[in-house]
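Field log, afternoon session.

UNIT: design team B
ACTIVITY: writing a sequence onto a fixed backbone
BACKBONE:
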């Protein structure tokens, strides 16, 4: 398995850094449709496209260790 999991979600490029994630689960609490913790306690994507954009961005931004990075359509980093 890669150290990164990356998806395009509504024009946003979203990356989970599996080496940084320590499984606090704040992203899961904020948007359980988008994220779950795998068997190792690391966040993975479920169906992020089913969450409205603002709530999805909040879920990405609440990570206390900044394991989730989001870039907008122009390539500008918006989270963290």
């Amino acid at each position: 398995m890669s150290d990164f999991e990356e998806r395009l979600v509504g024009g946003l490029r979203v990356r989970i850094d599996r080496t940084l994630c320590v499984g606090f689960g704040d992203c899961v609490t904020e948007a359980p449709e988008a994220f779950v913790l795998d068997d190792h306690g690391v966040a993975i994507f479920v169906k992020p496209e089913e969450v409205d954009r603002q709530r999805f961005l909040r879920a990405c931004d609440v990570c206390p260790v900044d394991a989730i990075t989001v870039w907008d359509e122009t390539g500008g980093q918006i989270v963290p």
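LOG NOTE: The chain has a mean pLDDT of 97.
NEXT ACTIVITY: expression trials, pending approval
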